[in-house]
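Database export, one record per block. Field names are fixed; values are copied verbatim from the stored entry.
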Amino acid sequence: MCRNETCQHSLVGPDQKIFCSLRCSTSYNMSHRAGQICPHCNVLKKSRWHQHIKSCQKKIQEKARKEEENRKKQIKIIRKCIGCNNIFEVKYKSHKKKYCSSLCSNINRPISEKQRSVGRAAAKRNGGYQPRSGRGKHGIYKGYWCQSSWELAWVIYALENEIVFYRNYEEFNYVWNNKTKKYRPDFILDDGSYLEIKGYQTLEWEAKLKHFPHQIFCYYKEEMKPILKYVIQKYGKNFTELYKGV
């Protein structure tokens, strides 16, 4: 009779000495094996013990990795912006972030002459404000981005005469040569009107004024003369050295 208790077959032939088949032999050996307890999950395993150990180790490592990622997501790092010196918070995954915002990065990060020429081409093609794309001496003065020395002079004059203003980032459409382009005035004043500092007049500039939907003040060369005189008398001809980092 086959030694496997669940089998009632008789042994037939010279090859069947203990079990009637390989299946009965395997079943009997598995049921009578002592087995081993996994040190990770405390499960008794009678077969494939090594594979089970490796599987448990991988699950534990994956769980630890996810817990570490979740822990890092909660970490906030205090950093100082290298562009404007403002203090800002970043998450651990962004711990290499150097600038407080994308705008600050666009304004302050180093730029090559090739990138500058691309910016000028984009401004000519699309219109609108393109940071650092102009030819003037640009930089930051007391937190205000200035695209030229004339803009810097006006900002200095406005701050020292308590004129409330903000850098304008809103764009307006205008039509030029049957194409719709974008125009962004330099500043917006406290009363909601806009201000543009313009060194020269062109037909395209007149088209911008024609399509502009709000009140706008334009400072040309004559309007800028007393402001430039005021700034030069107080800070000298090299007043552009007042830019941060210059």
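Remark 1: The longest helix spans residues 49-74.
Remark 2: The chain has three domains: 1-32, 33-74, 129-242.
End of record.
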